[in-house]
Amino acid sequence: MAAGVDSIKMEALSLSEGIREAPVCIIVLGMAGSGKTTFTRSLIQHAQEKFNPYVVNLDPACREVPYAAHVDIRDTVNYREVMKQYQLGPNGGIVTALNMFTTKMAQFAELVRRAGERGHKWCIIDTPGQIEVFTWSASGNIITEGLATMFPTIVVYVMDVVRSACPTTFMSNMLYACSILYKTRLPFLVALNKIDLKDCSYVQDWMTDFEVFQDALEQEQSFVSNLTRTMSLTLDTFYENLTTCGVSAKTGVGFAQLIKHILDCVVEYDKDYKPVYEKMRKERLAEQQAALCPKPPDNVEEAGVAVPLGLKLNDPPPNSGNSIFLMAPGLVPQSNEEEEVEDMEEDAKGSAEDQNFQSFVQSHLTAQQSKRDKLLQEQSQS
Ligand SMILES: Nc1nc2c(ncn2[C@@H]2O[C@H](COP(=O)(O)OP(=O)(O)O)[C@@H](O)[C@H]2O)c(=O)[nH]1
Ligand SMILES: [Mg+2]
């Protein structure tokens, strides 16, 4: 069943309630073609009985999804129409569609909250094909932070083990994963996908043993491999705390283990990340309240003196008789002698420059004329 977010009433959703227990939001990220959508389908199947997942598709450009989504961005925004109306290409269309969806973030969060109340223990979120649309966009940020300040939230990064077998591609993928980890500040799990095609043990070897990775790099003689060598040293600490799990989104292998890791991540969220997001939630709440009832400025006297209102529009202003008008302090003309002297100096400087320029033009013209005269004289002599 797909739900439209427009019809949602907001009275129940409030930041003041604190981070709820459920549903756990699982944001599925990964490069285009890594298998996010297929992974989402498999995860739903494996988690159905125990966690009754609520499913969200945030990819506006996919033709169809292989699962039944409860919320589908395609029901809210027609990405092809967006392209047509705003004269955008496919990437601009996808970003704009996600931005439009994000304007309904509060309603979306309310839907997720209600899903939790109806017994959905998990909420799985499939993201757009191109990873940067979600990870490096304002809307991706708003959705991730919005969810993490209301529900336990974790990130599952899907990585294609077939494509990552090339050490430089592996390194690019890892840099991406690392940047997302530090950007989102959420528990992070790497699903090494497509193990039905290639064994993923090489990833663990590369991550735990620097020399094995160096050996693999030796095969690649390029400038990029030198860069990759340096980067791999830098990523050492990132690898130390990284949880990986081999899966096949196609066959379902590895998902029992993956679910255990997800549950560990939820514990981690409660222990380490929740306090950070609790703080952020309180800040957001304070911002909301400040926006509702703005505080008068502390420096009231500096800001000017209150003028009693209550006159009708056609009443004459109180000072109109003697032609005195109210002015803001910054607008009152200041008679400052120093400034006047400076102004005079500036004027004098300006006119001297003018004179210089005029005499330069004059001498240039004279020089040109005498050149021309000389040339004519020479011609007439010859
Ligand atoms: N063999 C195999 N193919 C997979 C697996 N997961 C995804 N794929 C294929 O990879 C391609 C991209 O998958 P998709 O889920 O659309 O990727 P997304 O762009 O990240 O959502 C599709 O052709 C899938 O059938 C897997 O575990 N094994
Ligand atoms: Mg997809």
TrEMBL record:
Subcellular location field: Cytoplasm; Nucleus
This enzyme's EC code(s): 3.6.5.-
Keywords for the protein's UniProt record, in alphabetical order: Coiled coil, Cytoplasm, GTP-binding, Hydrolase, Nucleotide-binding, Nucleus
Protein name: GPN-loop GTPase
Assembly with partners or alone: Binds to RNA polymerase II.
Family as reported in the entry's similarity comment: Belongs to the GPN-loop GTPase family.
Organism expressing this protein natively: Drosophila kikkawai (Fruit fly)
InterPro entries: Gpn, Gpn1/Npa3/XAB1, P-loop_NTPase
GO cellular component annotations of the record: cytoplasm; nucleus
Top-level lineage group: Eukaryota
PANTHER family: GPN-LOOP GTPASE 1, XPA-BINDING PROTEIN 1-RELATED
Biased composition regions of type Acidic residues, renumbered to the chain: 336-346
Entry function: Small GTPase required for proper nuclear import of RNA polymerase II (RNAPII). May act at an RNAP assembly step prior to nuclear import.
